């Protein structure tokens, strides 16, 4: 008899991602060079055999990431992939260090290696949730570089995706925010999210039938956090009003929005060269002729290149800069995050550090 349907589902999701990683691994220049340097079955003289790819799982000890860790531990050896794990201790709760040590022990019991716990200091910029996220990803990036990992798997589920879409909608940040989390993101596609099409209950069920101990983070039920309120109050209210299927619909909206946003980003990238003069300055008349969605993407990119932090650059900032083009009345310069200033001079839009 085969595994429980929940276990089969999480393993299949991870297997697909690992197959994609192996394909990417075989296409790298080093691998291609090794393949052409010696006949099949022979090793090129003086060339060390390339090690198998390493995949890490980011694990908090919760049901989603423990299910992911168990699936990785099961699938990776069958494909010749090394599998390890990382847990991040944010230091935000009493006993967090002991909790991280327990997660490390559980990952090692699954057979993962290397495994480590990383303690971080969470700042305050952007609010507690954003600050914790920034600290966590910085630690994971560092771990990937130190261990030479090809990828880090994250346990975000379809429910997490639905919450992300609603948060983006509430911020009014545009179609990119509605596209939620990408299945592949980060430098060189480092982060992979196998569970975006699976619901949270599937992951929890997989842990239960495998007798995997899980930890429920009290922050996930704390109404002080926006995402927690959305999870326990907002989404249930929507399902009560609109019926079941809201989570699936929001996740589908994320994918459709991502496709549209990617297409607009590509259009903006191609159009940018045509709106710059010989000196590289943005020409207002040519920008004005572009569709607003394309023009604003060019403006946002220019602001980021000038030094404005992407995470602090909101739609209202870009709208103000856009009015220098579409509603020019001789207004003063626009101050942007990162001490960047945008002003109109002689038919050109100048965006640079103030």
From TrEMBL:
GO biological process, one term: tRNA modification
SUPFAM superfamilies (UniProt xref): Adenine nucleotide alpha hydrolases-like (SSF52402), MesJ substrate recognition domain-like (SSF82829)
Transmembrane segments: none
Domain tRNA(Ile)-lysidine/2-thiocytidine synthase N-terminal, chain residue ranges per copy: 55-233
Chain spans, region Disordered: 25-47
Any one Pfam family match given in the protein's UniProt record, by short name: ATP_bind_3
CDD domains (UniProt xref): TilS_N (cd01992)
Main location as per UniProt: cytoplasm
Positions bound to ATP: 60-65
Molecular functions per Gene Ontology: ATP binding; tRNA(Ile)-lysidine synthase activity
Keyword ATP-binding: yes
Gene3D superfamilies: 1.20.59.20, HUPs
Cellular component, GO, one term: cytoplasm
Record's keyword terms, sorted: ATP-binding, Cytoplasm, Ligase, Nucleotide-binding, tRNA processing
Domain statement: The N-terminal region contains the highly conserved SGGXDS motif, predicted to be a P-loop motif involved in ATP binding.
PANTHER family the UniProt entry points to: TRNA(ILE)-LYSIDINE SYNTHASE-RELATED
Protein name from the UniProt record: tRNA(Ile)-lysidine synthase
Lineage, opening ranks: Bacteria, Bacillati, Actinomycetota, Actinomycetes, Kitasatosporales
């Amino acid at each position: 008899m085969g595994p429980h349907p929940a276990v089969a589902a999480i393993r299949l999701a991870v297997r697909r991602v690992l197959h994609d990683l192996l394909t990417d691994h075989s296409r790298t220049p080093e691998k291609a060079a090794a393949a052409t340097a010696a006949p099949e079955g022979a090793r090129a003289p003086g060339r060390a055999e390339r090690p198998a790819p390493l995949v890490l799982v980011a694990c908090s000890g919760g049901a989603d990431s423990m299910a992911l860790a168990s699936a990785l531990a099961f699938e990776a050896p069958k494909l010749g992939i090394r599998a390890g794990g990382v847990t991040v201790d944010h230091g935000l709760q009493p006993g967090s260090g002991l909790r991280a040590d327990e997660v490390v022990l559980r990952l090692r019991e699954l057979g993962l290696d290397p495994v480590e716990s990383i303690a971080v200091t969470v700042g305050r910029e952007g609010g507690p949730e954003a600050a914790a996220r920034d600290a966590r990803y910085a630690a994971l990036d560092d771990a990937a570089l130190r261990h030479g990992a090809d990828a880090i798997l994250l346990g975000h589920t379809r429910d997490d995706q639905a919450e992300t879409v609603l948060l983006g909608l509430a911020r009014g940040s545009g179609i990119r925010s509605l596209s939620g989390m990408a299945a592949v993101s980060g430098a060189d596609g480092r982060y992979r999210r196998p569970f975006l099409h699976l619901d949270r209950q599937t992951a929890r069920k997989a842990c239960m039938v495998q007798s995997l101990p899980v930890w429920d983070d009290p922050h996930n039920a704390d109404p002080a956090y926006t995402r927690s309120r959305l999870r326990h109050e907002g989404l249930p209210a929507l399902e009560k009003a609109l019926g079941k299927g809201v989570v699936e619909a929001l996740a589908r909206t994320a994918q459709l929005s991502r496709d549209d946003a990617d297409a607009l980003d590509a259009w903006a990238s191609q159009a940018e060269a045509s709106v710059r003069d010989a000196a590289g300055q943005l020409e207002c008349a040519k920008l004005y002729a572009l569709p607003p969605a394309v023009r604003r993407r060019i403006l946002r990119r220019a602001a980021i290149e000038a030094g404005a932090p992407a995470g602090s650059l909101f739609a209202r900032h870009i709208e103000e800069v856009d009015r220098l083009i579409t509603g020019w009345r001789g207004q003063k310069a626009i101050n942007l995050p990162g001490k960047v200033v945008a002003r109109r001079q002689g038919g050109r839009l100048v965006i640079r550090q103030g």
